[in-house]
């Protein structure tokens, strides 16, 4: 992607004013993004995004610049201009770039850009058909298709030279059910770090039906009561609660600044003894998996919480300096236009010993949150508010009638302490995570868990 001699010259230029570390990130991305509404293709965007980011460290401070002109003349100019932010005595540095051997976690068989667009549209039509024909209450179906191939080169003044290819494919189906002027939404969005062979493993029509099943169930549901009660949160997308309310607090982005509730709590109890939490960037072909992070460091399985005890953080190179902590292969960014920082990959609560049936039968009354929707979180305090996309009452140890309008309200660190049962049915679900380094693909996940007491906001009695 860039000649080795050019890389070395640019790194020398970046360090010409006394910086102590320099890095080049080269990105070449091909992307296809399509949207279908009402069975008709509404928009289709295919393109290529290419650019180079240059980052310089001086102690705990950094300078970042980027360009989409990768000529040596321009890269030297950008590096020197960025270096002007640092005004120290130039250090003697000898570069010896050694290309890294990288383990491939994501086997790709068919590159999406080699597949005709008509075949991709056919997948979307199948999803639409399954969703729209599920029930007469379904008033609108939106299908989105995404594939991307991101090729990166990362080199730095410590001698690292690494290249990686990231290929991802995803189908998202949203169904809207309407009844007496009210609307309810259902959603299903499978994705993986795979090529077009991904569609040999999933059934687009079935995912369409699933989105519509949720919408239909909720449009016919009673309003949810409010109050404090036990809440059973199902596997898969239920893990978004841990991701948002707790996971971001374990990223060095906030820990290093001591704005996280988990700062200075390493090796201390932060959760119930039944809780073990992990972030793993190496699970083969999973949506949040990469071979290396965006600083060129191999991803790995990071133990965050073990039996309630905080064991680690997710750390990037710059915040690692501030924390005196080694990077954990967790540095990510949306594109070359943004500097990287610590982010999650595939984050989940590990399996426990209880079965799903045991968790439900041991809950006399409460709420079963089968699927969570959107929400808001204050990362500094961990206070959260999550909508329940699909919920049911638990009565006499059994899941009974569906309820709509439920909201989970609480605090992330407090909820960790209140988890008293963890199931043995781990499942991962796909999403996009936003932070200071942009949107990145992540998996959230967990087995079924029970929170012994949680505030549920409901609308019963409002009508």
UniProtKB/TrEMBL annotation:
PANTHER family: METALLOPROTEASE TLDD, UNCHARACTERIZED PROTEIN TLDD AND PMBA. It comes from the Bacteria. Pfam families: PmbA_TldD_1st, PmbA_TldD_2nd, PmbA_TldD_3rd. Belongs to the peptidase U62 family. Signal peptide: none annotated. InterPro entries: Metalloprtase-TldD/E_C, Metalloprtase-TldD/E_cen_dom, Metalloprtase-TldD/E_N, Peptidase_U62_metallo, TldD, TldD/PmbA_N, TldD/PmbA_sf. The keyword Protease applies. This is TldD/PmbA family protein. Keywords: Hydrolase, Metalloprotease, Protease. Residues 112-218 form the Metalloprotease TldD/E central domain. GO terms for biological process: proteolysis.
């Amino acid at each position: 992607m860039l000649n080795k001699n050019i890389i070395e010259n640019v790194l020398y230029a970046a360090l010409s004013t006394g910086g102590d570390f320099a890095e080049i990130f080269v990105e070449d991305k091909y992307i296809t993004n399509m949207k279908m509404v009402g069975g008709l293709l509404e928009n289709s965007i295919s393109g290529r995004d290419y650019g180079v980011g240059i980052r310089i460290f001086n102690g705990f401070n950094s300078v970042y610049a980027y360009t989409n002109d990768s000529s040596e003349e321009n890269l030297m100019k950008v590096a020197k201009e960025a270096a002007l932010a640092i005004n120290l005595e130039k250090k003697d540095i000898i570069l010896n770039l050694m290309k890294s051997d990288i383990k491939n976690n994501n086997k790709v068989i068919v590159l999406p850009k080699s597949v005709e667009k008509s075949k991709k549209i056919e997948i979307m039509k199948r999803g639409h058909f399954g969703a729209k024909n599920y029930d007469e209450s379904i008033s609108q179906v939106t299908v989105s298709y995404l594939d991307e191939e991101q090729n990166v080169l990362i080199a730095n003044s410590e001698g690292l030279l690494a290249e990686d290819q990231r290929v991802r494919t995803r189908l998202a189906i949203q169904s809207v059910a309407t009844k007496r002027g009210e609307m309810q939404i259902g959603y299903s969005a499978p994705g993986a770090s795979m090529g077009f062979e991904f569609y040999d493993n999933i059934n687009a029509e079935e995912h369409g039906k699933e989105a519509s099943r949720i919408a239909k169930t909720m449009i016919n549901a009673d309003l949810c009561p409010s109050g404090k009660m036990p809440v059973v949160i199902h596997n898969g997308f239920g893990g978004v609660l841990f991701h948002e309310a707790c996971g971001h607090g374990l990223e060095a982005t906030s820990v290093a600044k001591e704005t996280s509730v988990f700062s200075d709590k390493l090796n201390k109890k932060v959760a119930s003894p039944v809780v073990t939490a992990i972030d793993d960037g190496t699970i083969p072909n999973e949506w949040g998996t990469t071979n290396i992070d965006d600083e060129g460091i191999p991803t790995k399985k990071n133990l965050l919480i073990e039996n309630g005890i905080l064991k680690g953080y997710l750390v990037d190179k710059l915040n690692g300096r501030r924390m005196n902590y080694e990077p954990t292969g967790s540095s990510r960014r949306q594109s070359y236009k943004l500097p990287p920082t610590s982010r999650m990959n595939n984050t989940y609560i590990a399996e426990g010993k209880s079965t799903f049936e045991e968790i439900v039968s041991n809950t006399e009354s409460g709420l079963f949150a089968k699927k969570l929707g959107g929400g808001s979180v204050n990362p500094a305090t961990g206070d959260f508010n999550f909508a329940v996309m699909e919920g049911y009452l638990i009565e006499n140890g059994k899941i009974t009638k569906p309820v709509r309008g439920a909201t989970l309200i609480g605090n992330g660190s407090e909820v960790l302490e209140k988890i008293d049962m963890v199931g043995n049915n781990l499942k991962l679900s796909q999403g996009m995570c936003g932070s200071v380094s942009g949107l990145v693909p992540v998996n959230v996940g967990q087995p079924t868990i029970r929170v012994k007491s949680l505030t549920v906001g409901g609308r019963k009695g409002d009508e």
